[in-house]
Design a protein that fits this description.
The protein is of the alpha+beta class. It is built from five helices and seven strands; from the N terminus they run βαααβββαβαββ. The strands form two sheets. A four-stranded antiparallel sheet has the order 1-2-3-4, sandwiched between helices. α1 packs antiparallel against α2. The chain is globular and about 45 Å long.
Amino acid sequence: MNIQIAQASDISELAELYQKTVLAIAPQCYSQAQTQMWASFSSNIISFRQLILQGTTFIATDETGILGFAGIAEDGHVTSAYVRCDRIRQGIGSTLMHTLLDYAKNHNIQRLYAEASEFSLGLFEKFGFHLYDTEIVDLEGVQFQRYLVERSLEKPNT
């Protein structure tokens, strides 16, 4: 598996992975309306492009193509964590999370935080994030519960 930083030329393939993954896994815990609303985000190419390129998004690849991606902003916000639906629970999310943690340490980011879904919550908890609150988000009349998670990183020795 290779890790690289996302480029503008990756946007369409990442949007396709995002949409297919959401449509494949979301129905296990979310309503049809929630699933469709969540999946439709990738169709808004301006917003999706901003999600991928505004911070630093890492892409995991192998000979089959893009396996997943995870992003982080300079303030420690974990902006995304998605694994291709046919490769979930094969260590790709963990590899990407290790990459985000290394990035945070190298950039002296001392607090990471995210809004986790029902599916990503376990990954965040596995990596030492703790749940500090939940929130209800309304997207065009469709409500979602999100899990607010955070993790502090040790200050580097000076």
